[in-house]
Automatic annotation (TrEMBL):
SUPFAM superfamilies: alpha/beta-Hydrolases (SSF53474)
Descriptive protein name: Esterase
Keyword hit for Transmembrane: yes
UniProt keyword terms in alphabetical order: Membrane, Transmembrane, Transmembrane helix
Residues annotated as transmembrane: 12-29, 38-57, 69-88, 100-121
GO MF term list: acyltransferase activity, transferring groups other than amino-acyl groups
């Protein structure tokens, strides 16, 4: 059951049909008072509550930088309407059975709407992802093998394939280390625990000296999102199976500090997130894992605000991350608009923001050694305009860039596919394959 899909197949259809049936049960009542008062009241309450929540979330609270999609607002309004209708529907029902069915119908509507929201973002592809169950390949960090002799080469794959042990690791799965604390030794940043993917070849002896990919979630979100909606393990295992067990060591780091925190990937009043990603995380990885320490073997990537952060790292710290992958990132780090961001992060000092803002940096600096990839869904109208702008700026700043537009919106179906589709580009750039 944990592998049952929540995005397609029979289960989503069954839940959707149950939700539609529940909705029809809630509204199809012949009593005049119900039709004239209960239904209109429920609709008005749903519209008003949804409007108030939207204003609070997008203008006052601003827990995340992107606007709430209209489809999600519609699902929320339908849910409020269903909840309001449950009580009068119970009153209008004859007998215990009708009242029980009315309550169940309300639950069915909410489940169907929640499912549709999940389909919209592709956040939890399966029941196991929804429950965030530990994968079968998860191990504690204490079980990660220590240093051993290494195999080096650029590109690495042709050299590695000449080693006898290479043939024995190609079909084995990688391993995941969850809840891995990476302290903010220099930054003091209160990051949440990271997640770690180690490819099969990391467990070989001798061990190939592997490149490193730092992955970032969006906001709201957490590092575990890459292992659920992002399908990270499946992508890396598939790549490793085709390349004698080779794949990057992947560290999914936390750039936010909390699901609803947003320090906009800067060193500012909101926290030293930039130093955490540019200094603390690389220092920890090089100290605790046997990986290639060369900067050209390191890349950073992220989705949404995490994609913006990847570009921030690439423009502010090109010596650390000369390769980056920006998926559906914003035009600039933001808490809603530039004024709000500058006020919260720098106390209104616009010059301080300009000194670290990628677009402003790329106007005055060149990055001939940097290589970047931008991927956006064509149905993500805001993201598409932003990505076209920053990709153009990156090209003008002498970066070697690719700007890819794919089918889809601002969701995990775009991002998980993008990482899978671009693994050859990434591995070539990191010196893993020819």
């Amino acid at each position: 059951m944990t592998e049952w899909s929540l995005l397609d197949g029979p289960l989503p259809w069954l839940i959707t049909v149950a939700g539609v049936g529940g909705g029809l049960w809630l509204v199809c009542v012949r009593r005049r008072w119900f039709v004239r008062r209960a239904v209109p009241t429920a609709i008005v309450v749903a519209v008003v509550v949804t409007g108030i929540v939207r204003v609070v979330v997008e203008r006052w609270w601003r827990p995340f930088p992107d606007s709430v999609p209209m489809a999600i607002c519609a699902y929320f309004a339908c849910g409020v309407c269903a909840v309001v209708l449950v009580v009068p529907r119970i009153v209008a029902s004859a007998g215990v059975a009708g009242r029980v069915i009315s309550g169940v119908a309300g639950v069915g509507v909410l489940l169907a709407l929640t499912l549709q929201a999940n389909v919209f973002f592709a956040q939890y592809p399966t029941i196991g992802d929804l429950l965030e169950l530990a994968p079968a390949n998860e191990i504690p960090f204490a079980d990660v093998p220590g240093p051993t002799t290494v195999v080096t080469g650029v590109p690495l794959e042709p050299v590695w394939r000449t080693v006898p042990t290479a043939a024995t690791v190609g079909a084995t799965p990688g391993r995941v280390v969850a809840d891995l604390p990476i302290p903010g030794a220099r930054s003091g940043f209160p990051a949440r625990s990271a997640q770690l993917y180690l490819p099969p070849a990391y467990f070989a002896s001798p061990r190939p000296l592997l490149p490193v990919l730092i992955l970032l979630p969006g906001q709201p979100g957490s590092p575990s999102d890459w292992f659920h909606g992002g399908r990270l393990t499946a992508t890396m295992d598939a790549f490793a199976a085709a390349h004698a067990g080779l794949a990057p060591v992947v560290v999914v780091a936390d750039e936010n500090g909390g699901s609803f925190d947003n320090p906009v990937c800067l060193d500012s009043r909101l926290g030293n997130a930039a130093t955490y990603l540019a200094v603390d995380v690389p220092d920890w990885v090089r100290t605790h894992l046997q990986v290639d320490p060369t900067p050209t073997s390191w890349a950073i990537a992220g989705i949404s605000s995490g994609g913006t952060c990847a570009l921030q790292m690439a423009t502010n710290y090109p010596q650390v991350y000369p390769t980056f992958f920006d998926m559906s990132g914003d035009l600039e780090p933001t808490l809603g608009d530039r004024s709000q961001t500058v006020d919260a992060a720098f106390g209104g000092d616009d010059a301080a923001f300009t000194r670290v803002n990628p677009v402003d940096l790329m106007r005055v600096r060149s990055y001939p050694e940097s290589n970047g990839l931008f991927v956006t869904g064509v149905e993500d109208s805001d993201g598409l305009a932003a990505q076209r702008s920053v990709c153009g700026a990156a090209t003008e700043a002498e970066m070697r860039t690719r700007c890819v537009e794919v089918s889809g919106g601002h969701d995990w179906s775009v991002w998980s596919s993008a990482l899978s589709d671009e693994m050859d580009w990434l591995a070539t750039r990191l010196g893993l394959i020819p």
